[in-house]
Design brief:
This protein has 123 residues and is mainly α. It has one domain. Helices cover 72% and strands 0% of the residues. It is built from six helices and no strands. Helix 1 runs antiparallel to helix 3, helix 1 packs across helix 5 and helix 5 packs antiparallel against helix 6. The longest helix has 25 residues. The radius of gyration is 17 Å and the shape is flat. It starts with a helix and ends in an 8-residue tail after the last helix.
């Protein structure tokens, strides 16, 4: 089965949702206590859980449109999204090693995409 473009784009969008959920978790952790009322009224935490649920459903839908060996590595873009989102929303700083890691992830995903075009492994 050839992977359809819509499936790859849906997985990419899913990673943006789940990465946003991680930012929500971080924001929710600032006021988190182990009090049940505090947990169920922590809107950042609830928002993160909802984003993960939607992301899981969309991931299942996307698997109908392509090969898992092509689609699943796209999930690695979550690291890229979280890096950018944490700079913007949390004020975190990226050093040279983190930027090299981001470039490595993007290069790896691109190589997987190129390798899946003809369906055969190039050795």
């Amino acid at each position: 089965m050839a992977t359809k473009l819509w499936a790859a784009l849906l997985v990419l969008f899913t990673t943006l949702l789940t990465s946003s959920a991680q930012i929500f978790y971080k924001l929710g952790s600032k006021t988190l206590t182990l009090d049940p009322l505090s947990i169920i009224t922590n809107y950042y935490l609830i928002g993160g859980l909802l984003l993960y649920a939607v992301g899981g459903i969309l991931m299942i839908v996307s698997f109908r449109g392509g090969e898992v060996s092509v689609l699943y590595p796209i999930i690695a873009t979550s690291y890229v999204w979280v890096s950018f989102l944490s700079i913007y929303f949390l004020g975190e700083v990226m050093n040279a090693y983190k930027w090299l890691g981001v470039l490595g992830i993007i290069a790896g995903i691109a190589l997987i995409g190129f390798g899946s075009k003809d369906g055969a492994a190039a050795i």
